[in-house]
Structures are given as structure tokens and as C-alpha cells.
């Protein structure tokens, strides 16, 4: 369980840091639109940085989404089963689908990013940015998702063995107000 807790904390910290990418993307998007309409000036770099920030948000926060059990599921069907059966379904899903697919993507994404880094790949758009940071997000995001999958497997096995009661992986349903309060509390700690 200590490995699981470490992975959970790691992905919580990363998701908290990446959440600022949304604010940056919105500010850049609004600023770019204002400059384009007010001064008839635009740059591909500003459009590409928005794409990088959105990519970072989705790829680096997907592990946190898995931790919070907020990925798309078939709750209508699975919700009718006992908690133990639901845990078995989760366990098989992680082992037969999540981990193999993430490992396959990671296997293909590492050389993809590596070639981009070695060649210092640049955008083909005029005034574009370097591309390798965006391509590096793919293996990094899937690596974090694999780690979180391992954490979730550990928790499910611990539940089946009677070592935990299941609150570690229960669906976290919060209101927007509760989310804001949690962010404020987290910022006070940092």
C-alpha cells in the first residue's frame, strides 16, 4: 500500500501543477484573440503553445482522473453488482485492457519522442515552436497512467484480501464549491 500511496501522491501533485496550464491556455487564447482583432497581428507560436498546454493537461492529468475513478465507465451495468464483483471487473479491466494498451502506446511513443528530441524537430508552420516537448508529453503521460494503473491494481487486490475497505478507490464525487475549497486548502499548504 505504501507504493500505491506514493503513486497517488505523485499524480495528485502533477495534476495540481498541470491545472495551472488551463489558466495559462485561457489567458493566451484570450490575449491572442485580442491582439489579432485589435492590431491585426497573430503568430503561429501562440496557437501552438495553446495546443501544448491542452496536451499537457489531458496527458499528464489522465492518471489523476483514473485515481479519482472519473474515466468513462459502464456504471449502469456494473453498478448493479456487489462491491466485490465491481472490484473484480476493475481488476480484470486494468490487467487486460488498461496496462496492455498503455504499455503498447508507451513502447511506440518513446522512440517517437526520442527522434523528435534528437533532431530538435521544429513546427512546419511559419513562426512555430519546437515540437519535441509536445511529443515528450505522450510517453510521460502514459507512463504516469501505467503507474496509476499499478496503484489501482494494488488497492483492488488489498480490498479483495480484506486489507482495506475500499474507500481508497471509491468514486470521488464533489461539487464545484468543494473543489474550490480543496484548491484553496492545498495552496495554503504549499
From TrEMBL:
The chain crosses the membrane at residues 20-39, 51-66, 87-107, 127-147. Residues 27-157 form the Tripartite ATP-independent periplasmic transporters DctQ component domain. It is a multi-pass membrane protein. GO terms for molecular function: transmembrane transporter activity. Its main location: membrane. It comes from the Bacteria. One of its GO terms (cellular component) is plasma membrane. InterPro entries: DctQ, TRAP_DctQ. It is found in: Cell inner membrane. Keywords: Cell inner membrane, Cell membrane, Membrane, Transmembrane, Transmembrane helix, Transport. Belongs to the TRAP transporter small permease family. Part of the tripartite ATP-independent periplasmic (TRAP) transport system. The complex comprises the extracytoplasmic solute receptor protein and the two transmembrane proteins. This is TRAP transporter small permease protein.
